[in-house]
Amino acid sequence: MKRVLAVLGIQAFVFHSNFFKNEKKHVRLNEEDLQKIEDALEKQTSAEDAETLATLQANETATQEALSAAFELHGLKTVEGQTVAEAVEALSAKCTEYGESKNQHSFHKTDGKDKQEDEEEFKEGFFDAGAEHNQID
């Protein structure tokens, strides 16, 4: 209530009550007091709206920059007027393409079990460093 008191320029409210004690106490305001409150709220809302708009614009710029960097990294081309949702959809399609790719030459499939099919190449569970094919000329 301190803020409302400050806006109205008064030190305290005068609370009123009706004859029935069950009703809550209330404050009576005239039109001038209501207008002061309305003006203060409008100023506060305008400042908050400007701050919110600036934050939203900063977030949009950061999102666009991140999407552009991701497109460049994956060799995709941005389209003029492309929405954020369309850009994310394009990146999602590229991720799906990567995930479904069968070109996994650098990944070794394993079932988690050690298999030593050719025991002659191993010496106590390790490759034989003395084997001819492991020698440096």
Give average pLDDT, whole number.
78
- The SSE order reads HEEHHEE
Rg calculated over all Cα atoms: 36 Å
* Low-confidence parts: none
User: How far is the N terminus from the C terminus?
Assistant: 89 Å
Q: Class by helix and strand content? A: mainly alpha
Tell me the strand order in the biggest sheet: 1-2
State which percent range the strand residues make up.
5-15%
Number of strands: 4
Helix count from the secondary structure assignment: 3
Biggest β-sheet, characterized?
2 strands, antiparallel
What overall geometry do the principal axes of the alpha carbons give? Answer: elongated
What share of the residues lie within helices? 40-55%
Describe the structure in brief.
The chain has 137 residues and is mainly α. Helices cover 49% and strands 6% of the residues. It has 3 helices and 4 strands.
Which keywords apply here?
single chain, 137 residues, mainly alpha, two-stranded antiparallel sheet, 3 helices, 6% strand
What can you see in these coordinates?
The chain is mainly alpha-helical. It is 49% helix and 6% strand. The strands form 2 sheets. The chain has a two-stranded antiparallel ribbon with strand order 1-2. A hairpin with a 2-residue loop joins strand 3 and strand 4.
Ordered list of secondary-structure elements with their pairings:
Blueprint: H1 2-8, E1 15-16, E2 26-27, H2 31-73, H3 84-100, E3 122-123, E4 126-127
Antiparallel strand pairs: 1-2, 3-4
